[in-house]
Design brief:
With 334 residues, the protein is an alpha/beta fold. It folds into 2 domains: 207 residues, inorganic pyrophosphatase (n-terminal core) (Alpha-Beta Complex), CATH 3.90.1640.10; 113 residues, DHHA2 domain (Diaminopimelate Epimerase, Chain A, domain 1). Helix 3 links the parallel strand 2 and strand 3. Helix 3 crosses helix 7 and helix 4 runs antiparallel to helix 5. The longest helix has 16 residues. It is globular and about 55 Å long.
Amino acid sequence: MRLKVYRYLFALLIFTGAQSIPTMALATILVVGHQNPDTDAIASAIAAAHLKTALGSPAQARAQGKPNAETRFVLKRFGFDAPLIQHHYAGHDVILVDHSDEQLAPEDINKARIVGIYDHHKLGGIRSKEPLEIVTKPWGSTATVLQEIFVQKNIPIPPPLAGLMLSAILSDTRTFVSPTTTPQDRLAARVLADIAGIDDMNALGQQMLQAYNEEMQQLDEATLVGLDMKIFNMGSFKIGVTQIETLDASMLTPRWPLLQKEILKFQKTQNLDGVVMAITDLQRGGSTLFAVGPQAGRIQKALKLDDPDAGTWKPDLFSRKRQLIPALELAFSE
């Protein structure tokens, strides 16, 4: 009976053309993405909460930080409020989306009851006390994984949510330019675009990146470095990897020395063994890499950097997940 009521509410939502999904009052599951959330982390939390609620397990989306400019753009574009920011999850039932690395999860995640993981990265160090649902695929976006689950479970996706999920795929694949893009991402994007009534995915992807880049010019160097910083345990070492994506990286060229100072400061204050910074230029088609810290030499060798201080241009390098992390993990496991 409860499931029928939920489906009726969702059908009513679509019929009335409402641009937001009602929040269930008695949510028992909290769905949260990784630290420094990007569009996929936020959108997938909202989508997974909607999915679980439709299946009879009320859930609400949460976030570990404020959405960036790109994410705010798509939230507004499709009529969603940003999830509430919550840092402590002890005692709650939790679903993790877009990560399974303990370093990226809430600090007290080991005191929560993890009931599910939806992800598209490598398996991290998260442990659970009980059996749980894990769905992870080697695709370009967690939103792609969730779109397939919606289909499998025969749960309709409201047009606003389809637009948000489409945005997550476009963000993580950089509108299918990234090497992380798979045929499944392209298929899911087409399905979601049809539901959302989006005729031009390329235009949406450009608008998203433009929103991100416009804000980037107003941010200080410390904020830029921390905007998409992720810290990984690699063997006995801790390595930070941050990526700054731009339409045209030349706008940041005068700021490179200050950005380098900030990654060095971050490395020291966080007591990391090394930090890699990738400044990605989507128009030119690649990334400039910098490395600092006690293990900069090993990073240089692993990533084949000519000059980790002055920056090394790497054509066709777009993906931290697929092109940087595996090489670093191999180097630091030896």
